[in-house]
Design brief:
One of its GO terms (molecular function) is histone H3K4 methyltransferase activity. With about 240 residues, the chain is an alpha+beta fold. It has 4 helices and 12 strands.
Length: about 240
């Protein structure tokens, strides 16, 4: 009942010869470090060396001219485009590290997990774009459902962003009469967006705040920011 296992043959290039003709049918087997190193060196050399028909000799002076031309075009593009749009694209690719947790101002708050320099985009206020009529209907419905806070942000006279049930961490930002951020409306591809900018340098674990700028009303909403120049009310 004992069968002698066939000896593992090697090809001329040093790699293992598969007896069955298929590597998958032989199951898992350990590759010798020398063979693995030889294979890696061969594949790396093949990847680094371009095909003979694609090798083109480039003049160093021509390459320098091309690089300077690219820099000139990039500088002209940067100067002609809106800086807010460029910053917004950077915000999409490099999001700030933020977290929400209990705040000493009110309920939940948004905190920085990394240092944020002044005049930087912190986060976009994301939600559903609705009209004023829909906003009034939803506000009454939220009161009937027992939702204490509604997260509606006015963009202009006709558009409001509702982040009550569909939003991101930006809806947890609390109000402060002495804030470290401010809100700004920018236009990206003919669509208005609300972005929170840093007003000053923000340290790690510092709470993100901005001024809500509520309109003045008879029924006052108390302010709990605790800053030295606190107005006492949000509206």
């Amino acid at each position: 009942t004992s069968f002698s296992t066939p000896k593992k043959k090697k090809r001329d290039d040093g790699m293992r010869e598969h007896v069955t003709g298929c590597a998958r049918s032989e199951g898992y087997y350990k590759i010798d470090k020398k063979d693995k190193l030889k294979y890696l060196n061969n594949s790396r050399a093949f990847a680094e060396e371009p095909p003979a028909d694609t090798q083109v000799r480039t003049c160093p002076l021509l390459t320098a001219r091309r690089r300077s031309e690219q820099r000139r075009l990039l500088s002209s593009f940067t100067g002609s485009c809106d800086s807010d749009l460029l910053k917004f694209n950077q915000l999409k690719f490099r999001k700030k590290k933020l977290k929400f947790c209990k705040s000493h101002i009110h309920d939940w708050g948004l905190f920085a997990m990394e240092p944020i320099a002044a005049d930087e985009m912190v986060i976009e206020y994301v939600g559903q774009n609705i009209r004023q009529v829909i906003a009034d209907m939803r506000e009454k419905r939220y009161e009937d459902e027992g939702i204490g806070s509604s997260y509606m942000f006015r963009v202009d006279h006709d558009t409001i962003i509702d982040a009550t049930k569909c939003g991101n961490f930006a809806r947890f930002i609390n109000h402060s009469c002495n804030p470290n951020c401010y809100a700004k409306v920018i236009t990206v591809e003919s669509q208005k967006k609300i972005v929170i900018y840093s007003k000053q340098h923000i340290n790690v674990n510092e709470e993100i705040t901005y001024d809500y700028k509520f309109p003045i009303e008879d029924v006052k909403i108390p302010c709990l920011c605790g800053s030295e120049n606190c107005r006492g009310t949000l509206n």
